[in-house]
Amino acid sequence: MATTATARAGLKQSVGKSRAQVSDMQTFTWVGIDKRGVKIKGEQISKNVGLVKAELRKQGINPQSVKAKAKPLFGAAGKTITAREIAIFARQLATMMAAGVPMVQAFEIVAGGQSNPRMKNMLTDIKTEIEGGLSLAEALGKYPVQFDELFQNLVKAGESAGVLDTILDTVATYKENIESIKGKIKKAMFYPAMVLAVAVIVSAILLIFVIPQFETVFKNFGADLPAFTQFLVDTSRFMVAYWWIVLGIFIAAVVGIVFTYKRSDKFAHFVGRMLLKLPVIGEILRQSAMARFARTLGVTFKAGVPLVEALDSVGGATGSVVYNEAVKRIREDVAVGHQLQLAIRQTGLFPNMVVQMVAIGEEAGALDAMLFKIAEFYEQEVSNAVDALSSLLEPFIMVIIGVIVGGMVIGMYLPIFKLGAVVG
Hints:
The protein is mainly alpha-helical. The protein has 16 helices and three strands.
């Protein structure tokens, strides 16, 4: 026991020293002349200028200028690490390991090619952890935000089976597919939000800046205004006097809804159910959830993760609170011995086609292949639906803006038309 404790202490001390060494490193930009007399430049991570120059001379490069790379204006932390960067990292690491590049060296190469300082620092730290004796899955576990439980479980399964390069390639493909479908969902949600935002902005501009100009003209008429025109004038007066109250209420409502959604499971479930009932968009969200469910479960099951454990990681990947709860119920049913197809049927959220294909996959012993086919089908359905929605909403946006602007213009000119009729 004492020997084990001493070994652990030595390992922690070694990792601590390695981290300290990493923190001393910085990026230098250099300009030099190679053996052909050609001027070249590049970047290198090192402790100081002298070591950079020494390394360049070893490579036959005569250093002309070596400077510490300037830090970003707003700090060196860099931008947030995106899921797309994680997918690219998985693809690069898989390619290098399949080519026989040692893991530590592969991390050095991938980290050196990062433009995001935060991503580069994270990969350097993971490399240090691996050099200190941790497995890749354990090292990735130090960054649970960037590498979720699903990612860690897949890597752990790959390490155990000795097929880490294949698993990483599978993870990269999975990440790319999931990000693609997320992008399509964002595109589908963007158009309605844009219609609403443009309508609100145009209405506010007309009410605050345009209609008051007409009001001064109407005062000289000496006659009662048409009801619609009077309504627009009264609304304009209110907006001019109390626009800050309207803006404050709008911001408070948005913040309140977001806060409640994050803190209240009941409210989040209610919103999720309402979104699924929306025409067109609800169907897109439903198809997206099924595609992500099938893709995630297929990847984890193919990697050798037991079905019950695989379902632990699937719920959160669906992108829907409603389907997340359904996956939890599916897991409970499977854990007590029910077939997957029966557990899926009991939720009432999956169409009969999905249930039947899962049943066939279970009977044929090819569940992962059948799940991939389901995912591909619904990913294509989402893509088609988003394209159709985009085509539908483009003219719809023009109609909405036309109705708002045209209605207000007509309302402003009604008194003029009325006066012309009286004069005539």
